[in-house]
Write a structure and sequence with these properties.
five-stranded antiparallel β-sheet; alpha+beta; Beta-lactamase; 608 residues; 35% helix
């Protein structure tokens, strides 16, 4: 492709030169000189506009600089041992343990061959110490480079990396079975907005004669554009706090402002430091990340889709209300013969009570009323009715942004999955499948898969009573706002009154007797609306899920939490979500929950 383009370009230049050669300059005074066939050859040139090109910075929503291009100092160690690590520690002001750890972190694997080049990042103070005693250490080399510097360890999957600086990581990743999978999925905003961050040089394209005089242009000039700053939607303090809550556990936490779609916190756990991918002295750390069985380098909220569990009862209830399969006052028995219910509770006399206690038999019958409903026009064909009703259910569910890519500003977003009638025809090998064979949809299990972004957006839709903006990480590019598509309001196919009918039940979830009553923030005057989920897992402990928003009447934050193999959503996911809500809305955690907070953070550290 490039060769063909070059041939076309060269041909164009030859044509322009030939045309120029046929022209004659004006000869003042006329006479014979004016008639003389004086041929002038023009040369096509490309002139770079001489402005220094800087890559833009990345700032959080409060204008704290998270990433910038700054000088970094690298200390190259001698390639041949022995190295006096004690003396090196005295030189740098490090203890012997720190010296050994820093060198080990810089090696790509523990038994790296002797002479492997090791470079250590130094602070300005450490550089001054080395320069002061440089005569005593002739084998040490000190170099200075302009590189991307991360001012915080938080937000690794959000910030990502510059591909040119990540080449050591990419070379390491090629050695691993999952290397290609990682390389495609964790570039963050550095990759997604690379062109805007980088800017572009300006070029002039003059045609000049032998005397250097310009005679027009052979191509359109391009203006110089400096690299632009990115102003993120992320609150770096909230991000760091949320990362402490999840730590080494597998899962995610996504918090966004439902009024704008701005992502406030975006955690993929196990967490790792933002600079780990590109830092020249972190080869050993990268090797551990690549080999880790929990796959920390995967951007879980965006690229992995999982069964949502009972939180999906909210979507099913809204659709059933829209399709008039139920009303807010519909009552069903807690019939354990249909599906087991792990909660002991009073009979669910309404949708609010069914949500409060997350009654599985109640929502089994909600979905059954929806799927097995036979319209008059199809009264003689229940098979056709089931197919039509499931197709209609899927149509309404897809209007939530499910089973499709939302379009967030991050690489490789996954679409999730909602089953179709044709899917079940093939899977069951018959068109005559019954509701009993697909009832797992009623409790968010089976074939349904949602991403973390979709889960958080689902909570935002309910908070907004039926509409949403696409979740996004950048609220401003340079002096401008976000990309235009993030300012477009999307509406579901569900009437707002049906979303309003869900909120009393979601509020009741965090009130006395509800599945997450222990996570209530009523003591600090915040009413939370939420829904717990416990996702069955055949390969180990169940997964914990929670979605919610606060304050319930005028929502300012919506949160989705998913923690793998953590058990009940009420005891593992809900506490993390409400503490992020409290931290964001109040700025601090009430003393009543400090012990709770410490216990969760300790658990997160133990799993590192």
């Amino acid at each position: 492709m490039r060769t063909a383009f070059n041939r076309w370009k060269n041909g164009l230049l030859v044509l322009l030169a030939a045309l120029a050669a046929c022209s004659s300059p004006d000869q003042p005074g006329g006479g014979p000189a004016a008639d003389q066939d004086v041929r002038v050859r023009y040369s096509a040139r490309r002139v770079v506009v001489a402005d220094t090109l800087y890559r833009g910075r990345i700032l959080d929503r409060n204008d704290s600089v998270l990433v910038a291009t700054r000088p970094q100092f690298l200390l190259g160690l001698p390639r041949r041992p022995p190295l006096d690590t004690l003396a090196l520690g005295l030189l740098l002001g490090w203890d012997s343990t720190t010296v050994r750890k820093r060198i080990a972190d810089a090696l790509p694997y523990p038994d790296a061959r002797p002479g492997y080049p090791v470079q250590l990042l130094l602070t300005a103070a450490e550089v001054r110490r080395v320069r002061k005693d440089s005569a005593a250490w002739p084998l040490l080399t000190l170099t200075e480079r302009q590189r991307r510097v991360y001012t915080s360890g938080a937000g690794a999957p959000v910030l990502g990396y510059v591909a040119a600086e990540a080449q050591p990581f990419l070379r390491q990743a090629r050695r691993y079975r999952r290397g290609r999978f990682y390389r495609l999925r964790n570039g963050g905003v550095e990759t997604y907005y690379n062109g805007l961050l980088n800017g572009h040089r300006g070029y002039l394209h003059p045609l000049v004669d032998a005397q250097g005089k310009q005679h027009g242009s052979w191509a359109k000039d391009t203006a110089f554009q400096q690299g632009q700053d990115l102003h993120l939607t992320i609150d770096v303090k909230l991000q760091a706090y949320a990362e402490k809550l999840l730590g080494g556990r597998k899962g995610y936490l996504v918090a966004l402002d439902p009024r704008t779609g701005e992502i406030l916190a975006f955690v993929s756990a196990p967490v790792y430091k933002a600079a780990a991918i590109t830092a020249p002295d972190q080869a050993g750390v990268r090797a551990e990340l690549l080999e880790h069985e929990d796959m920390p380098l995967i951007n879980r909220p965006a690229t992995l889709a999982n069964p949502p569990g009972s939180v999906f009862k909210l979507v099913n209830a809204a659709i059933a209300l829209q399709m008039r399969a139920i009303t807010p006052g519909t009552s069903f028995r807690c019939d354990q013969s249909l599906v087991s219910c792990v909660h002991h509770h009073p009979r669910p006399l309404s949708l609010t009570v069914g949500l409060k206690y997350s009654c599985n038999p109640y929502f089994y019958q909600v979905m059954q009323s929806l799927i097995d409903c036979v319209p008059d026009s199809l009264a003689q064909d229940t098979v056709a009715a089931r197919h039509a009703n499931l197709a209609q259910w899927r149509r309404y569910a897809r209007s939530f942004g499910l089973d499709s890519v939302l379009g967030a500003d991050m690489p490789r977003e996954a679409p999730g999955f909602l089953p179709t009638p044709a899917y079940y025809d093939k899977a069951r090998r018959t068109r005559g499948w019954t509701y009993r064979s697909i009832y797992s949809l009623s409790i968010g299990q089976g074939e349904i898969n949602l991403t973390g972004l979709q889960m958080a957006n689902m909570a935002a839709i309910i908070a907004n009573r039926g509409w949403y903006y696409v979740p996004h990480l950048v609220r401003g590019v340079g002096e401008n706002g976000p990309l235009p598509r993030f300012t477009k309001k999307h509406r579901t196919l569900i009437d707002s009154v049906h979303f309003a009918a869900l909120v009393p039940g979601m509020v009741a979830v965090l009130q006395r007797g509800g599945t997450a009553d222990a996570s209530s923030l009523a003591d600090v005057g915040i009413t939370v609306a939420g829904k717990t989920g416990t996702v069955e897992n055949d390969e180990g402990d169940d997964h914990a899920a929670f979605v919610g928003f606060a304050p319930a009447d005028k929502p300012r934050i919506a949160v989705a939490v998913y923690i793998e193999n953590a058990g009940f959503g009420a005891t593992a996911a809900a506490p993390c979500a409400v503490m992020v809500m409290e931290k964001y809305l109040r700025g601090y955690i009430a003393p009543k929950r400090k012990r709770w907070e410490k216990r969760i953070q300790n658990r997160a550290r133990q799993d590192d």
